[in-house]
Write a structure and sequence with these properties.
By secondary structure, the chain is an all-alpha fold. It has one domain: MFS general substrate transporter like domains (Growth Hormone, Chain: A, Up-down Bundle), CATH 1.20.1250.20. The protein has 19 helices and 2 strands. Strands 1-2 form a two-stranded antiparallel ribbon. The two termini are 19 Å apart. 50% of the residues are buried. This is Putative inorganic phosphate cotransporter. May be an inorganic phosphate cotransporter.
C-alpha cells in the first residue's frame, strides 16, 4: 500500500473491474438499442403482405414466415408507431437522471431493461389483439423504460479515471453501434425467416433478460461497492476521481438547476446533440423504407444494406478511439479541441454527403448505397466528440445532465418520423426524399457551428457543491495579497515567510 500511495496515478493492472463495467454497459446499451430500433424492420415486415385500403389482417402462405399475419396500415399509422417509443423516452429521461443519482445506476438500469424486455416479449400478442394502437401503447411503455443514457453517463463518471475516460467511455458507447447493426441486420434476417416479424420481438426480449442477470451479478454503482475489485484498483479509481468517503455523499449533493440551464456550454452541447440525433434518427427509422421504396430492395437485401452503414459506424468508432487516444497521450490536442474536431467530423461530413445524395438518381443504385453507408459511418465520431462531453462539464451531475439532454434529443427523435411522414407521402418518390435529406443536412451544419463557438470540455464551476465552492473562495482570499519575499533576515529558521497549500500535488 505504501508504494501505491507514492504513485497514486498509476493503475495497479491493465484489466480490472472498471473494464468489466464498461463491457457490461456495452452489452446493455446494445440490448436496449435493439429494443429501440428493431421496429423499423418489423414495420416493413408486418405491412408487406396486404394491399387493402383498410386495416386488416391476412394469412400469407407464400412468404418465408409461414402463416404470420400481416397488416395494411396507412403511412400516418406507421409514423405513429415509429414515433411512439420516443413519446415515452422523452418523458423518462429527466426522472431517470434523478433516480440514477438517488438510487444508483445499477438498480435503475436493471429495472428499466427488465421492463423493456418483458414488453418486447408481449408485443406480438398485443398486435394480434388490437393492431397498431396496441403497438403504439407497448412502444410508449418501452420508451418509459428507456433509462440507458443517464445511467451510462453516471456509471462512467463513477468508474472512469480521467486519463481513461475517453477510452472506456467510447468503448461502452460502441454498444449503441453494435445494437444498430443487430437491429438492422438481425431483425431483417429474422423477419425473412420462418420466425417472421414476431421473432424480432422474442429474440430482443431474450437478449435483454440475459443481460439483466449478468448486470445483477456483476454490476456495481461505484468502486467502493464492488465485491471483486482489488484494493489497488479501488485506490487508483477513487484517488483519481477525488471521491474519498465524505460526510456528504454525492447522492445528497444539491443539484445546481440554475447553473445547468443557464450554462452556455450545456446549451451548445444540446444543439450539437439534437443535430446529431436528427440525422441519425432519420437513417435509423427511415432507411429500410427508403431502400425498399426507392431502390426496390427485397427484405434480405434490405437487411444487409440497412445494416452496412451501422457496421461501418461501429468499426469507425474504434478507429476514432485509437486516433483520439494517441493524440491525447502525445498532448497534440487539448480535450476541448478533440471534442470539437470529432464533432465537426460527425456533423459536417454527413451533411455534405446527404446534400450529394439528394441529387443522385435512383438508377445509380451503387453510388446511392455507398453515400448512405458513408453518411452514417463517419457520424460515429460523435461518440468521442459530443456524447462524452456531459462527463467533462460535470462529473458529479453527469446523470442529471445526460437525462436533460436526452429528453430533448428524444423529442427530436419523436418528431423525425412524423416530419418524414408529412414530407414523404409516397415512399417510392425520390423527389420527396430529397427534401428530407436537405433538411437534415441543414440541421447538422447549424448544430456544429454553435458547438464550435460555445462548446468546451472544461469542468463547469457549478459541478461542485456550494460548500466546496465557498471553501475554495475562502482559500483563494487567503492568498490574494501573498507575496514571495527573499531576504537574509528570513533565513534564521525562526519564521515562515511563505505557506504552500497544494490540494492536488
Amino acid at each position: 500500500m505504501a508504494d501505491m500511495e507514492e504513485v497514486p496515478g498509476k493503475p495497479a493492472s491493465r484489466l480490472g473491474m472498471r473494464h468489466l463495467q464498461a463491457a457490461l454497459l456495452f452489452v446493455g446499451l446494445a440490448a436496449n438499442t435493439i429494443h429501440q430500433l428493431n421496429v423499423g424492420f418489423a414495420m416493413v415486415a408486418m405491412t408487406n403482405g396486404t394491399s387493402s385500403t383498410t386495416e386488416t389482417t391476412t394469412t400469407t402462405t407464400s412468404s418465408d414466415d409461414g402463416d404470420t399475419p400481416h397488416y395494411n396500415w396507412s403511412e400516418t399509422e406507421k409514423a405513429y408507431v415509429l414515433s411512439s417509443y420516443y413519446w415515452g423516452s422523452a418523458l423518462a429521461q429527466f426522472p431517470a437522471g434523478y433516480l440514477c443519482k438517488r438510487f444508483g445506476s445499477k438498480a435503475v438500469l436493471f429495472w428499466g431493461t427488465l421492463g423493456s424486455s418483458l414488453l418486447s416479449a408481449l408485443t406480438p400478442h398485443g398486435v394480434y389483439a388490437a393492431g397498431w394502437k396496441a403497438y403504439c401503447g407497448i412502444r410508449l411503455m418501452q420508451g418509459l423504460c428507456q433509462v440507458t443514457w443517464p445511467c451510462i453517463h453516471q456509471h462512467l463518471a463513477n468508474w472512469c479515471p480521467t486519463k481513461e475516460r475517453t477510452r472506456l467511455g467510447a468503448f461502452a458507447y460502441t454498444g449503441f453501434d453494435c445494437g444498430n447493426v443487430l437491429a438492422m441486420f438481425g431483425a431483417g434476417m429474422i423477419a425473412g425467416s420462418p420466425l417472421g416479424w414476431p421473432g424480432i420481438s422474442y429474440s430482443a426480449a431474450g437478449l435483454g433478460l440475459v443481460w439483466c442477470l449478468l448486470w445483477l451479478l456483476l454490476g456495481a454503482n461505484k468502486p467502493t461497492e464492488a465485491r471483486c475489485i482489488s484494493e489497488a484498483e479501488k485506490a487508483y479509481i477513487v484517488g483519481d476521481l477525488q471521491r474519498e468517503e465524505r460526510k456528504d455523499p454525492p447522492k445528497k449533493m444539491e443539484i445546481p438547476w440554475k447553473g445547468i440551464f443557464t450554462s452556455v456550454p450545456v446549451l451548445a452541447l444540446l444543439c450539437a446533440r439534437c443535430a446529431d440525433t436528427w440525422g441519425l434518427a432519420t437513417m435509423q427509422a427511415e432507411l429500410p423504407t427508403y431502400l425498399s421504396g426507392v431502390l426496390h430492395l427485397d427484405m434480405k437485401k434490405n437487411a444487409v444494406y440497412s445494416a452496412l452503414p451501422f457496421l461501418l459506424m461501429w468499426f469507425m468508432c474504434y478507429v476514432y478511439l485509437i486516433i483520439a487516444d494517441f493524440w491525447l497521450q502525445k498532448n497534440w490536442f487539448s480535450l476541448t479541441a478533440l471534442r470539437k474536431t470529432y464533432t465537426s467530423v460527425a456533423l459536417w461530413a454527413p451533411a455534405s454527403i446527404l446534400l450529394t445524395l439528394a441529387f443522385v438518381g435512383e438508377d445509380q443504385k451503387t453510388l446511392v448505397l455507398v453515400l448512405v453507408t458513408l453518411s452514417v459511418g463517419v457520424s460515429s465520431a460523435a461518440t468521442i466528440g459530443s456524447e462524452l462531453n456531459t462527463i467533462d462539464l460535470s462529473p458529479n451531475h453527469a446523470g442529471i445532465l445526460a437525462g436533460i439532454l436526452t429528453s430533448f434529443t428524444n423529442l427530436v427523435s419523436l418528431l423525425t418520423p412524423l416530419v418524414v411522414g408529412v414530407l414523404v407521402k409516397d415512399s417510392t418518390q425520390r423527389s420527396q426524399w430529397q427534401v428530407v435529406f436537405i433538411l437534415v443536412a441543414a440541421g447538422l451544419f447549424a448544430g456544429n457551428v454553435i458547438f464550435l463557438i460555445w462548446g468546451t470540455a472544461v469542468t463547469q464551476p457549478w459541478n461542485d457543491s456550494k460548500e466546496a465552492r465557498r471553501k475554495l473562495k475562502a482559500e483563494e482570499k487567503l492568498f490574494q495579497h501573498t507575496k514571495l519575499e527573499m531576504g537574509s533576515e528570513n533565513l534564521d529558521g525562526n519564521g515562515v515567510a511563505l505557506r504552500l497549500n497544494c490540494k492536488n500535488p
